[in-house]
Design brief:
By secondary structure, this protein is an alpha/beta fold. It folds into 3 domains: about 10-140, Sulfate adenylyltransferase, CATH 3.10.400.10; about 145-295, HUPs (Rossmann fold); about 340-390. It is about 35% helix and about 20% strand. The chain is built from 14 helices and 15 strands. The protein has helices at about 15-25, 35-45, 65-75, 100-110, 120-125, 145-155, 175-185, 205-220, 240-250, 265, 320-330, 340-350, 360-365, 380-390, and strands at about 10, 50, 50-55, 60, 80-85, 85-100, 125-140, 160-165, 190-195, 225-230, 255-260, 290, 295-300, 305, 315-320. Strands 1-5-6-7-4 form a 5-stranded mixed beta sheet. The radius of gyration is 24 Å and the shape is globular. The termini are far apart.
Length: about 400
Amino acid sequence: MTLSKRNRTLFIDQEAASALELVSAGLLYPVTKLMNKRESDEVSKTGMIKGKTFPFPFILAPAGRRNEEVLKSIRPGEDVILVAEGERFATLTVEEVFEIDPEERLLQIYGTTDITHPGIQATLKRLGRYAIAGHYTLHKNSAEKSKRIITEAKELIGAKQVSALVMAANPLHRAHERLIRQTLDTTDLVVIFLLKPYNEQNLEYTLRYETLKYFLENFLPKNKAVIVPLENSYIFAGYNEIILDAIVAKNYGCDRLVIGRNHAGLGMFYDCNSNKSIIDRLVGIDIEIEIASEYVYCDKCRTLVSTNTCPHGQHHHISYKADSIRELLELGILPPAVLMRKELSSYILSKLYPNRFKNLEKLYYDVLPVGGLLQEHTEQDFYMELMKLYQTTSLT
C-alpha cells in the first residue's frame, strides 16, 4: 500500500534537530548522513569512520507510537518529512530502517545504563526502537551562520591560529575570565562556543550570552574573540563530550581546543601521574588539545592562582563552582567580586529580579554616596555601587 504524504512524516525534538544541523553544515565530519546498520556496527566496533575517530553511531531513532508505525512501514527510496517543533525541518530520502537496542545506545553515549543518571532518563524518553538511515536536506540551517561568524572574524584580523573554548558560562566567573585570557595569550583568535540550550538548571541563554559579550567588548582587545552558539544536545552529554568538542572545533576551522583540567569528561579518565586520557583516543582529527590549569582564589596569595603554582593547601583556596555562584544569584544575593565581576553580576541580578525594590531612588540616595547630583538610576547601577560598599575596608 502506498503511504500518504501525511503518514510519511516523523516528529523529532529540538535536540535531534540540532544534531542534524551540525552534520548538514559539515561540523561533525567525517559523518555526512544518518548511518545505516552496517556503518553503525562498524563505528560501534572500531570507534572509527573513514579513518577518523567518531565515538558512537550517528543515528536517528525517534520515540513515539506514531513514529514507530511510520518507521515500520516506509521503504528505501521514499522521502520522509522530518518535523521539529511543529515546523517542517528536513526532507530525508530513506536508505534503510533497522532495529536498535536502546540500552546499547545508552551505553555508547553515557558509558552506563544506570537509570538514576538524569541524562539516561531523559534520553530513554526520546529514544525509539527503530533507526532510519539516509541523506537529508534541511529547510534551513542556523549552523551555517555560525561558520560565517568565524570566517569573517579570521579575515578581519588575518588570524593564522584559532583556538576554541567550549563553555556554559553559567555564570561567567573570574576563573572563566582567566582561562579566556590565558588562551588569548598564545593565539590570534579565540572562538567561544557557548552551550545553548543547556537545561532547566541554567541561566537563560540570552542572559549568559549578553554577560559574555559584555566581557569580550569591555575587557579584551577588540576583535580577538567571538561567541558562537552550540546546541548542547544529548550526543554531547556523555563521557565522549571532549571528542565531539574537538571534532566540532576542527570542522569550524579551529587549530586548538583548550579544556579545563576539571572538565567532567576529562576527569573520568585523567590520571595526574600519567599523560593518558580520553584525548589519546583521537585519531585523524588534526587539532591540538591543551589541558589548562585549574584556577582558584588563595586567601594567602590574595589573588587568583593556578593550583600547580600555589604553595598553600586546599583549605586556603576558594574554588570557582559555577553552580554555587549561580545559586547566590538565583537567591538574589550579589556574589563577592572575587568570584564574579560586579558588572556581570549586577546585570544578571537586574534581569532575574526586575522591579525588585519598592522605591529604588530613595534606597539609592539613602545608602550610597551620590555627590549631590540628582539623576535616575537603574537597578544595575544600584548593585554596582552596592558592591563598592562591600569592598570598603576601613571599617572591617
